[in-house]
Automatic annotation (TrEMBL), chain A:
Its main location: membrane. Residues 279-470 form the ABC transmembrane type-1 domain. It is a multi-pass membrane protein. Residues 1-20 form the signal peptide. Belongs to the binding-protein-dependent transport system permease family. It comes from Lactiplantibacillus modestisalitolerans. The lineage of its organism: Bacteria, Bacillati, Bacillota, Bacilli, Lactobacillales. It is found in: Cell membrane. This is Amino acid ABC transporter substrate-binding protein/permease.
UniProtKB/TrEMBL annotation, chain B:
It comes from Lactiplantibacillus modestisalitolerans. Keywords: ATP-binding, Nucleotide-binding, Transport. It comes from the Bacteria. GO terms for molecular function: ATP binding. SMART domains: AAA (SM00382). PANTHER family: AMINO ACID IMPORT ATP-BINDING PROTEIN, ARGININE TRANSPORT ATP-BINDING PROTEIN ARTM. Signal peptide: none annotated. This is Amino acid ABC transporter ATP-binding protein. Residues 4-238 form the ABC transporter domain.
Length: 478, 244
């Protein structure tokens, strides 16, 4: 076998083993999803570990009831979707028990009763709902705050803007794009205590109960265990201890961060481990996806310029579908929609789903310019090669492809950079890559500007290195 | 048996019939020049002989192989027909030597070493042995065309097709290319040459074929065609060409 063939076989073998490991590990342990940024119920502490009321309650109950679980921290929206698609066994994420949700999920007994409050910027003079008329209100999708605000929207005539993430919602209010946000009281008061420049201006409105959710009709045993465990930890005082621990202390005491670590350099050294892990995930995804997308793109390109009608038609259709679909939709479809379609508890690990998403999307773009590059090679080249007696594929390989690929190099470099940046979109299916790392760190310390600056600089550095590498390759080829 | 037999050859592009029923035989060692006004179908005819164009109707038999027969391996037939194009079509990413050795090596006709030896001899023949390692873009048009001839000869073809080989050249380059072609003709190569070089046709051709309007109008020895044109079309054509 030639070198490249060996490489392809090894890559496929690696992917295969990944699948195998991924499915084995989930056989006996419950996978439980939670939100990433919903302090004090769940948030990432220094070093990447998750902490919070939900996390501690789950841990205490699992000890009482003797079950193992794997925690999966993704956005709230993704957690709920994955539960309904049977990708996870349960969700504990400050989730409100509502009638609508009861149609899809079975809930445990309430483990917390919350209230919704309205918060505005520190220097704002908005105090009453009536002052919201015509203004924009920031909400986080799927929360009790969002449900409450929606119920009074018509009465007070405000506009709504949705966020997937609490911190982005707070920031939108802080910078003045929105005048107010609605949030669960413990979450809001905890955030304010820890440095968010907002203030609470309303009383607590009834927001109902938080419950642990499983998919309707599934995992009844887990639900039973949760209820029993909850009863037990309430009885022995563990529950109160957990609640007090989070609602009565400030964050620094929980995360171990100090004031002097809030400088740019301090933040960097403090979070270097987390950032490094995210960066590694981004690089891994980028490199593997670039390789796969390039293979797919070359195949689509070659198919696209083949004589006859079948090849070009297949190529155009594939390019049309995957280039036309937004990356995020494709990611959700592969990760959540596709297993749902197949059923039988079929699961795709997020990393594999992300990789396939990037391969198809970037591969389609690559296919389009590869096709263009081959078509740009003068027709006379193919004729000259064929007139010498070279078969079509030999002519393609020896004459058309080397010339076409030279034409395509700038497009390839461009596509590599786009792929790198597109990995950030995969945070929606719970892949903790560089961008998601930033979100998580900010959820803990609220240092939005410094952390995003840090993340931006890291992206620029990698892109610069990638460009240098590509230019070097380009010089070598020419 | 004739090297090339063409029977009732038709070629249409949509409603436009370019070749309207041609018949021609070319014998071994024969040099046939095809002349005629632009758009008369000369190039299309030539390209039908190695299947670069697929005839709409009719039969083309080359070296005994019927090109319209599905069982015919076109790649094997093409190995025995060299073709030289108006615009050279050298492979720009390969050196002169690699251009010449590509096909024999890829098709396992010769080892790399053998092919290079043959290539250097052929480059010597076309007067370019000093350009073996040059890239095509550094060559003049005339040099490119001579490399193209060497490239075609590297497969040791039994027939050579020339599609207006000097039409894209500066006037001072034409002579070098024609000299190479004359040398080939003298060695007994079977050649079909589409050309506007009447001097070359007169001097080298065994037979001259005049095409117009998708048909062969006259077909005969050079002296007959040039000195005693029968059809008004040919008389008119020669008048114009000679007056230029």
């Amino acid at each position: 076998m030639k070198k490249w063939q060996v490489a392809v076989v090894m890559l496929l073998a690696a992917l295969g083993s990944w699948f195998a490991v991924g499915t084995q590990a989930q056989a006996k342990t419950y996978t439980i999803a939670t939100d990433t940024t919903f302090a004090p119920f769940e948030f990432q502490a220094k070093g990447g570990k998750y902490k919070g009321i939900d996390i501690d309650i789950l841990k205490a109950i699992s000890k009482k009831e003797n079950f193992n679980y794997k925690l999966k921290a993704i956005s709230f929206g993704a957690a709920v979707q994955q539960l309904s698609a049977n990708q996870v066994d349960g969700v504990i994420a400050g989730m409100n028990v509502t009638d609508e949700r009861k149609k899809t999920f079975d809930f445990s007994n309430a483990y917390y009763t919350s209230g919704v409050v309205m918060a505005v910027a520190k220097d704002s003079n908005v105090k009453k709902f009536s002052q919201l008329r015509g203004k924009t209100v920031a909400l986080k999708t799927g929360t009790a705050g969002s449900a409450y605000a929606k119920s009074i929207q018509n009465k007070y005539g405000f506009k709504i803007k949705y966020f997937n993430d609490s911190n982005n919602m707070y920031n939108d209010v802080k910078v003045g794009n929105s005048v107010a946000c609605f949030e669960d009281y413990p979450v809001m008061s905890y955030g304010i205590k820890n440095g968010i420049a907002l203030k609470i201006v309303s009383k607590q409105y009834d927001a109902g109960d938080y419950g642990f959710a499983v998919k309707k009709g599934k995992n009844a045993e887990l639900l039973k265990k949760f209820n029993a465990g909850l009863k037990a930890i309430k009885a022995d005082g563990t529950y109160d201890k957990i609640i007090n621990k989070y609602l009565k202390s400030d964050q620094a005491s929980l995360t171990g961060e100090t004031a002097k670590s809030r400088t740019f350099v301090g933040l960097f050294t403090q979070n270097i481990g987390t950032i490094g892990t995210g960066l590694w995930m981004t690089l891994e995804l980028t490199v593997i996806s670039i390789i796969l997308a390039t293979i797919l793109g070359l195949a689509l390109g070659v198919l696209g310029v083949m004589p006859g009608k079948v090849g070009p038609a297949i190529s155009s259709t594939i390019i049309y579908i995957f280039r036309g679909m937004p990356l995020m939709v494709l990611a959700f479809f592969i990760y959540i929609g596709f297993p749902d379609l197949i059923g039988h508890g079929f699961k795709i690990p997020a990393f594999i789903a992300g990789m396939i998403t990037l391969m198809l999307n970037e591969g389609a773009y690559t296919g389009a310019f590869v096709k263009g590059g081959f078509a740009a090679v003068d027709e006379g080249q193919m004729e000259a090669a064929r007139s010498l007696g070279l078969p079509y594929w030999t002519a393609m390989r020896k004459v058309i492809m080397p010339q076409g690929i030279r034409i395509m190099i700038p497009s390839f470099i461009n596509q590599f950079i786009i792929t790198l940046k597109d990995t950030s979109i995969l945070s929606v299916i719970g892949i903790v890559e560089l961008t998601q790392t930033g979100t998580l760190i900010i959820a803990r310390n609220f240092e939005g500007f410094k952390i995003w600056l840090m993340i931006a600089i890291i992206y620029l550095i990698i892109i610069t290195l990638l460009t240098w590498l590509s230019n070097w390759v380009q010089r070598r080829i020419n | 048996m004739a090297k090339v037999i063409v029977k009732d050859l038709h070629k249409s592009y949509g409603d436009n019939e370019v070749l309207k029923g041609l018949n021609l035989e070319v014998q071994e060692n024969e040099v046939v020049c095809m002349i005629g006004p632009s758009g008369s179908g000369k190039s299309t005819f030539l390209r039908c002989l190695n299947d670069l164009e697929v005839p709409t109707q009719g039969q083309v038999i080359v070296n005994g192989h019927d090109l319209s027969d599905k069982a015919t391996n076109i790649n094997l037939v093409r190995e025995n027909i060299g073709m030289v194009f108006q615009h050279f079509n050298l492979f720009p990413h390969l050196s002169v030597l690699q251009n010449v050795t590509l096909a024999p090596v890829e098709l396992k006709k010769e080892t790399q070493a053998q092919a290079e030896k043959t290539a250097l001899e052929l480059l010597e023949t076309v007067g370019l042995s000093d350009k073996a390692n040059a890239m095509p873009k550094s060559l003049s048009g005339g040099q490119k065309q001579r490399v193209a001839i060497a490239r075609a000869l590297a497969m040791h073809p039994q027939i050579m097709l020339f599609d207006e080989p000097t039409s894209a050249l500066d006037p001072e380059m034409v002579g070098d290319v024609l000299d190479v072609m004359k040398k080939l003709a003298a060695q007994g190569m079977t050649m079909i040459v589409v050309t506007h070089e009447m001097g070359f046709a007169k001097e080298v051709a065994d037979r001259v074929v005049f095409m117009a309007d998708g048909l062969i109008q006259e077909n005969g020895k050079p002296e007959d065609v040039f000195e005693h044109p029968k059809s008004p079309r040919l008389q008119d054509f020669l008048q114009k060409v000679i007056n230029v």
